[in-house]
Amino acid sequence: MIDFEREASETARSGSILSAQALATFYAALGVLRLTPQMVRLSAAPMITDRRENLSVFSIGSDALVVTDRGRSRIVRQRSVSEIDADGTIIGATTLGNKTIVYLGTAKEITRLDITDGITGSRASIKRPAMGKFAGALEDGSLVFFGDTDSGSFVWTVSPTGGEAVVARFNDHMARIKIPEAKAIKYVARGESRDVIVTAYPAPQALSELAAGWIGNIHSTLAWHWHSILAAGFALYVVDFQRPPAVEAASTGYIETPRLIMSEIKPALAAVKLRRGVDTTKLGFVGYSYGGYTALTLLARTKTFKAIAAEVPLGNLFQLLRVPDELRLMDCAPINGIGYFQEIEDPYSFLRVGGPVHLNRRRMIDYSPSLHLESATTPTLLFAGEFDSYRGSAEQTYMTLLRKGVPAELVMYWGEGHVIKSPGNVRDMVNREIAWFTKYLAPSAVTQASDSR
């Protein structure tokens, strides 16, 4: 049980944007939240969910499920299945006293249904607010929402009559965060018109829609990453990287992944070099996951960059054929490892070697940048999680660069997987990256980049 008002608010008032998101997510997933002297039961997270199939499954008690599947919602018990006569996807289910309640959501409203007797009973609909995520309900029928805005983070309720009341507010300092300015530079890659988005602090006005998403939204999932680099004085550019249509390897439209990366990055760099005031002799590159794979591919194939940071990168495709350490002692370990075959072979995937791995040895080697570092000279900072299946790629790349005498550092975070989550580790990673780029991208370049918009 969490006393949000008394305990968590103290943490929230001194917390950062990242901790605000972590708190909100934690409360939503916990299942029980105390906002008032009365107990508030939140809808539990679904047992099963698949957005592609519009599927969600919630447990209600010990003997029943509520299921939404392709637009149809049903109550499933041991000996019966009954339809729920209402539109929307099930977004929550709970018991209030002796009543069983489910909540169905559409783009415009959330409907509360009483299904205690196994059929759709009383119902009440509340207009969905313009922003915020549904977190549960109070016993009086009010709904609970949480959300982050550019002026702070909030938890609030919406009553059955539509009245809204803020229950908690924190991170007011977000209103003082300066928003970076973004400008688009037009260019052409693989015959298609693209935009490379260049951003820099400070901005005299709100960020345009050009940089919406990871960079433009200061409370987005990766905001801590990009905004920390921007706040350190670096200009940041984002490539409009487009994957080609999924085609068979024998098709004329097929392009191998390393060549795809170069054909996407090089035209964008040429466009950036046309931007007045940016010192293009001091360019760095940072990428996460497949972005890390892209970073290692660039390390192996170009000397354009003066510093590279590869976060949890994949560098050797053969290492995807091993079972991750955390699954090695489990009976189901081989089954869990089979998913990597799809990652490598699927024509829709980023790697797509063009068929079964045992028939595509040449591409498996060609697509593994860690095996092609003979010409690499760029100082490289590598990050890995202890339990990440990509960890071996970072280690192999580091050892190769160490043997070559190329400046390199490897940072391993114990207890982390493919996504670095611990706030302390996130802070450490950002600080190390800023120090790395500051070291290898001369201060004059930083000043010129940040002063040119």
How can the largest sheet be summarized?
A: 5 strands, antiparallel
* Overall morphology: globular
Determine the structural class based on helices, strands and strand pairing: alpha+beta
Question: Low-confidence parts lasting 5 or more residues at pLDDT below 50?
Answer: 1-48, 203-219, 444-453
Named CATH topology of the largest domain: Rossmann fold
Portion of residues within helices: 25-40%
CATH superfamily of the largest domain: Alpha/Beta hydrolase fold, catalytic domain
The pLDDT mean sits at 74
**In angstroms, what separates the terminal alpha carbons?**
49 Å
Number of spatially distinct domains = 2
CA radius of gyration = 25 Å
The strand count comes to 22
How would you sum up this structure, described in words?
- The structure is a single chain.
- The protein is α+β, with helices and mostly antiparallel strands and 453 residues long.
- The protein has 2 domains: 4-174, Lipocalin, CATH 2.40.128; 177-451, 3-Layer(aba) Sandwich (Rossmann fold), CATH 3.40.50.1820.
- The chain has helices at residues 4-14, 17-30, 223-231, 257-272, 290-301, 333-345, 361-366, 391-404, 423-440, 443-451, and strands spanning 32-33, 40-41, 48-50, 55-59, 64-69, 72-77, 81-83, 89-96, 99-105, 109-114, 123-127, 133-137, 143-149, 152-158, 164-170, 181-189, 192-200, 236-238, 284-288, 307-311, 380-385, 408-413.
- It has a 5-stranded antiparallel sheet with strand order 3-4-5-6-7, with no helix packed on it. It has a 4-stranded antiparallel sheet with strand order 8-9-10-11, with no helix packed on it. Strands 12-13-14-15 form a 4-stranded antiparallel sheet, covered by helices on one side.
- β12 (133-137) and β13 form a beta hairpin.
- It is globular.
- The protein starts with a helix and ends with a helix.
- Mean pLDDT is 74; it is low at 1-48, 203-219 and 444-453.
